[in-house]
């Protein structure tokens, strides 16, 4: 059975990101993958938010793609959570995203060693992403994986293909 996947990009300057563009272009080659580029959406527009919510309901597999900097996800992801994952849509009386599968693809400029207990950042990227994992759990969706692409400035097509294969299969 072919998955129907929505990739949501939260890069605030996508045109300047070799890594995130490479990932998106690789997904574009795959059937049944659609995209939402949040930097192109007015998150303060109620009609846009309603369209996002409607779109989310049509997918079971959702990929959140974003760069990791300042020990977090970009503000666009937080704003998207606040505007889209609202009461009576994502939680409370209605959990309309219940059992949807959320995968994270995170690009990081640093090395895996940098994000270890002995590295300069002292903690893993996954540690810093705990609020996102908690959000996914709170709306009763499923966190199905986090794929951190370290040294993103030197990202290879082979590495991207491996990650995509892991998600698609």
From TrEMBL:
<keyword id="KW-0560">Oxidoreductase</keyword>
<dbReference type="GO" id="GO:0010181">
    <property type="term" value="F:FMN binding"/>
</dbReference>
<dbReference type="GO" id="GO:0009055">
    <property type="term" value="F:electron transfer activity"/>
</dbReference>
<dbReference type="Pfam" id="PF02525">
    <property type="entry name" value="Flavodoxin_2"/>
</dbReference>
<feature type="domain" description="Flavodoxin-like fold">
    <location>
        <begin position="3"/>
        <end position="159"/>
    </location>
</feature>
<dbReference type="GO" id="GO:0003955">
    <property type="term" value="F:NAD(P)H dehydrogenase (quinone) activity"/>
</dbReference>
<protein>
    <recommendedName>
        <fullName>Flavodoxin-like fold domain-containing protein</fullName>
    </recommendedName>
</protein>
<dbReference type="InterPro" id="IPR003680">
    <property type="entry name" value="Flavodoxin_fold"/>
</dbReference>
<dbReference type="InterPro" id="IPR029039">
    <property type="entry name" value="Flavoprotein-like_sf"/>
</dbReference>
<dbReference type="InterPro" id="IPR046980">
    <property type="entry name" value="KefG/KefF"/>
</dbReference>
